[in-house]
Design a protein that fits this description.
Elements: H1 3-27, E1 37-43, H2 47-50, E2 69-76, E3 83-85, E4 92-95, E5 99-104, E6 107-111, E7 116-118, E8 124-126, E9 153-154, E10 159-161, E11 169-170, E12 173-175, E13 183-186, E14 189-191, E15 199-200, E16 204-207, E17 209-211, H3 217-252
Antiparallel strand pairs: 1-2, 3-17, 4-16, 5-6, 5-12, 7-8, 9-10, 10-11, 12-15, 13-14
Helix pairs in contact: 1-3
């Protein structure tokens, strides 16, 4: 095995992967409620370490180099973004932990995106173009009167009233036992492996506000430039080793 080429190739692949993740974070820097992804890597064992039957094929002098890097599944950064006042009656932000619940075509998803609007049929939906219904504390779509949108009041406890004397609705806001298990699904939607484990949240709801993305463009751009340099360095190493092998085969090994 040509260890140098192999290690440089893994460097190209992992840095290309990291570059894609950072680019997606930057693309969503202005997306309300977006949670950035973090790239995770680990050192890969050599072939002889992974498979004992290959030990006889390995060069002991090269074992210490290792097997390169291996990309792991991305991890979600659940840190909160800053709250921004919008003045829109149906907007809401969560101060502290917790997630809004929405219906994604029969599957309950979580989100920190509190940009809501009232549809023509009175359903409170996400204002992200997908029109996903916002769920109440019982897991049912919230129904309001669109004609009273300007009179909508969202309380700190998540209650929604419209001044018409009806019983206030309650936003479904939940906590998850292990935030590390959350995964980005699409846009600002998050999934949790076992929704039966979620519990009602006591977080404060801030009305007429939304939570910005937790992406710092300056930090992400710095990481992107660092990744590009590492990718180029590994690509240059492949080119250098290829040139060296070319000379070895066609010049040094040439029969006079």
């Amino acid at each position: 095995m040509l260890y140098g080429l192999y290690l440089s190739a893994t460097g190209v692949m992992t840095n290309s992967y990291r570059q894609d993740v950072i680019a997606n974070n930057l693309a969503n820097a202005e997306t309300v409620g977006f949670k950035k992804d973090l790239t995770m890597f680990r050192q890969r064992m050599t072939a002889s370490q992974e498979s004992p039957e290959h030990q006889g094929w390995s060069n002991p002098l090269l074992e210490g180099i290792g097997g390169g890097t291996l990309a792991e599944p991305t991890s979600l950064d659940t840190s909160a973004g800053s709250l921004e006042k919008t003045g829109i009656k149906t907007d809401a932000a969560i101060q502290g932990s917790g997630y809004f619940t929405v219906d994604d075509h029969g599957t309950t998803r979580l989100t920190r995106n509190g940009q809501f609007v009232i549809a023509t049929d009175g359903t409170l939906i996400m204002a992200n173009g997908k029109n996903l219904p916002v769920l109440d504390a019982s897991g049912n779509p919230i129904k309001l009167d669109g004609r009273l949108a300007s009179q909508t009041v969202i309380g700190q406890d998540g209650s929604i009233s419209q001044g018409d004397g009806s019983v206030p609705k309650q936003l479904g806001v939940v906590d998850v036992p292990d935030p590390g298990l959350l995964k980005n699904e699409s846009g600002t939607l998050l999934s949790y492996p076992n929704m039966k484990e979620v519990t009602p949240s006591n977080s404060i709801i801030v009305a007429e506000s939304v939570e910005d993305a937790n992406v710092d463009p300056a930090t992400e751009l710095t990481a992107l430039m660092e990744t590009q340099r590492q990718l180029e360095a590994n690509a240059n190493m492949i080119h250098t080793q290829d040139s060296t092998l070319d000379k070895l085969v066609n010049t040094v090994g040439k029969v006079s």
